[in-house]
Amino acid sequence: MDTQKISLLEGREKQVYEKTAGGVEVDIACDKTSLSGSVSQRACVFCGSRVVLYPVADAIHIVHGPIGCAAYTWDIRGAVSSGPELHRLSFSTDLQEMDVIYGGEKKLYKSLIELIDQYQPNAAFIYSTCIIGLIGDDIDAVCKKVAKEKGIPVLPVHSEGFKGTKKDGYKAACMALMKLIGQGSTEGISKYSINILGEFNLAGEAWIIREYYEKMGIEVVATMTGDGRIDDIRRSHGASLNVVQCSGSMTTLAKEMEEKYGIPYIRVSYFGFEDMSKSLYDVAQHFPERPDIMEKAKEIVRDEIRKYYPEMQKFKAALAGKKAAIYVGGAFKTFSLIKALRTIGMSVVLAGSQTGNKQDYKNLKEMCDEGTVIVDDSNPVELSKFVLEKEADLLIGGVKERPIAFKLGVGFCDHNHERKIPLAGFIGMYYFAKEVYESVMSPVWQFAPRKGGAK
């Protein structure tokens, strides 16, 4: 593959930036809809809302629309539950041609009644898809009617795919959660309490994080939405602090809760030794009247790093000088990955996200080394171009980026939805480093020379 022949699509130039010494500083264009024809790696509004709400395990999730929308988003997160698993079931009203002509409200009502009777959920989320926005079904009225009849929250999620970007789906999900928050009793909640926002319990990560905070003496009221429970969400307004991990998806909810209930929030990351440690210290600093909380945080950090540091040095010795390309959903995750890769001796030659804002990209420019390409809302052609040009040894992304890496003959690490091994927390950093080491140093690459490299 001749990378000289791979060019950026017209209209994409302002969303790509290469950091150079003495180069002209420009603002990266972002917060815009994907360019037509770019085959964006970014998902639609509906998918954005679905991935945020999906891990709520004791609710039923009904996709109002054609069967394809439900099939596309079924079980796309490795979100695990410590109890009920209703989220693992994917329900759809399966609209057909006659439903589109005459409307699907009756079908939605009948589906809701049948599913609630059969599964006895604590709530129901109804996702409106593109076709619903076109035919004009009043899902709010249907939800209100069923909620009154069945006595549980039935929450419309206005997530028509064509309405905007994946970030608009996040906002729709947050608005649905706000209808639950404040409906439960806050009796018995400790003054030293938090909600964990933007943690989706992939491979049990929420349990790891919750354990750290509980060892510090902090009560975790609700995790939104990993291993989520409706009753916990309803009483989450009683917490003293919101701790936002996935800033792209949950900052809207944190701001809404701050405005309505006066709960402050902080942004954190649980990836890598540096950011995981900081996330514990930042929470402890919020409760200065309890110095024992900070002391316990320091003890956890000291013990955990002591446990994994020797192995990390072995990985670093082998990986020193290797190069990685990063393309993930949220920019905050990109920051953590850059720091984590530096811990094991690797440099970053491509850094991008689907949902970053101007401040995120400004911070990214400051963090990255010279020669690093920074991209917003990329596509397969661009990713292939930069992975080849920068001679990356590893691509870190999600399920849609995996085929790109394998076709180009480079290692791959899934840092998004589908993974089965936790990458958050101190133990997660060890697993991450081990996976990167095994991927980059695998002997298989001698039999799969780079496209455009040795023949």
From TrEMBL:
Residues 44-440 form the Nitrogenase/oxidoreductase component domain. The keyword DNA-binding does not apply. It holds the Pfam family Oxidored_nitro. One of its GO terms (biological process) is protein-containing complex assembly. Transmembrane segments: none annotated. Keywords: Nitrogen fixation. Gene3D superfamilies: Nitrogenase MoFe cofactor biosynthesis protein NifE, C-terminal, Nitrogenase molybdenum iron protein domain. InterPro entries: Nase/OxRdtase_comp1, Nase_comp1_CS, NifE, NifE-like. The keyword Transcription regulation does not apply. Pathway: Cofactor biosynthesis; Fe-Mo cofactor biosynthesis. GO terms for molecular function: nitrogenase activity. This protein may play a role in the biosynthesis of the prosthetic group of nitrogenase (FeMo cofactor). NCBIfam families: nifE. Belongs to the NifD/NifK/NifE/NifN family. This is Nitrogenase iron-molybdenum cofactor biosynthesis protein NifE. It comes from Chlorobaculum tepidum (strain ATCC 49652 / DSM 12025 / NBRC 103806 / TLS). The lineage of its organism: Bacteria, Pseudomonadati, Chlorobiota, Chlorobiia, Chlorobiales. The gene is nifE.
